[in-house]
Design goal:
The protein has 21 helices and 13 strands. The protein has 507 residues and is of the alpha/beta class.
């Protein structure tokens, strides 16, 4: 059954917000007309507010960190008019209905409000015209042309706080660029992510905002003499706008994790010139699901993110276990999160005498039910910590989710329990045991549908065999040797193959 989550409600609201705003304004006009003619100046101000908002939405501009610092303040000024006008208008409606004011006072307030909105609107229009006289984006485009950029990372995601998708790749592109005397840029469609990446990386690389199809084309035209490749980290629909520009560059899909989730074998990925996969299993996954991809598109690059992980050379008893559930996802087939049974899973882990590191997916709080489970798990661990020595306390919250990365959680644990997640795929490299909670009541069918499950101890969907599995792992690890054989199929034989393949596609 589909759950109507907070995140889905937000997306629905965003899709309908213009219609909702229009309906509210119409209702307010009807209400004001019913009060008397002294409200006419206020009513006349409404189309002015709407026009300024419309004009601001359609004045799009390229930004480049370091040389566009004042542009946002100038061009975004009209949005402040909309906010100020709307606030004044709603306060005025409230006062007129709930306060008894003389008609003359209402006329004065009404005309003053109209004058205020007109004054701000004239200033806004002046700023827009000034921007147009400055020849638009030419300064930014000339700057980009002079940089001689060799490759770019393109990022767009409508969801907030998803910048980790690009951040996990950035250090390795930076390392490659420094070692090979190459220059690169980050291009984003969204102003929010422009701010995020320019604040964090603006001193090291050019961060570019190109918020329309036309401006993507302008950016590519400005860099066409040197640009050889563009790398993408997710399956955003905006990617097709960049690819559709027709410039003679290589478009490469990296994704932001390797697992048996549907996003790791999406048909959308076939539009790219190359698809970087960690191991051969990443390519096989497409064919297993009936998606025909030219085999020459696949490049096996390993996982540079896990190159520094501590690797064990022999089985060892499990004392600390990492619980790393994924989120629910945006579709029925992606609803594989083990956090739905999170409270019961952690109860069994604690009962087995294990120390727990709890690291939920960053998107967990978007789903109301999973967020509740997350809070229950943390409360359970916090309560159990009261009876533990300092060095044996469970780790969760800020330390596990923000201070430590996934690699630190992996290094400080002896095993992992989770679901269809790239965290488990990367964990395979460490050589340590993996427990995977089946999202299918038929365990055998689950393994057949998700080949990576062959590397893991499968936990029944009802958790009926979890306790016994934990007892076994506290003594020995029967699958240790089998995982060593299988991991090369998922991780590749050359963990640094990434740098070699990047060099190939930007020649």
């Amino acid at each position: 059954m589909r759950i109507f989550t907070k995140d889905r409600f937000r997306r629905l609201f965003r899709a309908a917000r213009r219609q909702i705003q229009t309906l509210i304004l119409v209702l307010l006009i009807i209400l004001l007309l019913g009060k008397g003619y002294e409200f006419l100046p206020i009513i006349f101000s409404l189309p002015i507010i709407a026009w300024v908002r419309y004009a601001n939405n359609h004045v799009k501009y390229i930004r480049v960190c370091g040389i566009s610092k004042n542009k946002i303040n100038k061009v975004d000024y009209p949005s402040n008019i909309f906010k100020i006008g709307s606030i004044v208008f709603f306060i005025y409606v409230f006062c007129s209905y709930f306060l008894v004011l003389p008609a003359m006072v209402l006329w004065i307030i009404s005309f003053f409000t109209l004058f205020l909105i007109l004054a701000f609107s004239v200033k806004a229009v002046y700023n827009l015209l000034e921007y147009a006289k400055e020849n638009g984006n030419q300064k930014e485009l000339d700057y980009l042309s002079g940089l001689k950029i060799d490759f770019a990372l393109f990022y767009q995601d409508g969801a907030k706080n998803s910048e980790h998708q690009l951040k996990m790749w950035y250090p390795y592109f930076k390392e490659f660029a420094e070692k090979n005397n190459k220059k690169f840029a980050i291009i984003t469609y969204n102003n929010n992510y422009y701010e995020v990446f320019s604040n964090e990386y603006g001193e090291e690389v050019a961060v570019v905002r190109a918020p329309s199809l036309r401006m993507m084309g302008e950016v590519l035209e400005a860099t066409k003499e040197s640009l050889k490749a563009i790398f993408y980290v997710n399956n955003s629909t905006i990617n097709s706008m960049m690819i559709g520009q027709g410039l003679n560059v290589n478009h490469i899909q990296l994704l932001h994790g390797d697992s048996d989730k549907p996003s790791s074998y999406s048909k959308v990925t076939t539009m790219f010139d190359y698809i970087f996969v960690a191991g051969q299993a990443g390519a096989d996954r497409y064919y297993q699901h009936g998606i025909n991809v030219n085999k020459d598109k696949f490049k096996i690059v390993g996982r540079p993110q896990i190159g520094d992980l501590k690797v064990i050379d022999k089985a060892k008893p499990v004392q600390t276990i990492l619980f790393a559930p994924t989120w629910r996802g945006n579709s029925k087939v992606a609803e594989v999160s083990s956090l739905e049974q999170g409270e019961e899973i952690v109860k069994q882990l604690v009962s087995a005498g294990l120390r727990v590191i709890f690291r939920p997916h960053p998107y967990t709080n978007r789903d109301h039910l999973l967020d509740l489970q997350q809070q229950k798990v943390k409360a359970l661990l916090e309560e159990d910590n009261k009876n533990r020595k300092e060095e044996d306390k469970h780790i969760f919250g800020e330390l596990a989710e923000q201070i430590w990365g996934v690699n630190e959680c992996t290094d400080n644990s002896d095993a992992v329990i989770g679901d269809l997640s790239s965290v488990l795929s990367d964990y395979l490299y460490s050589g340590k045991p993996i427990l995977m909670v089946s999202s299918d009541e038929d365990k055998q069918q689950f393994v057949e549908d998700n080949p990576f499950a062959r590397t893991a101890y499968i936990v029944e969907n009802d958790l009926s065999n979890l306790s016994q599995t934990l007892k076994t792992l506290k003594k020995n690890d029967p699958m240790f040797e089998e995982r060593q054989v299988l991991k090369h199929s998922y991780i590749g034989t050359d963990i640094n193959g990434f740098f070699k393949q990047v060099s190939e596609v930007i020649k």
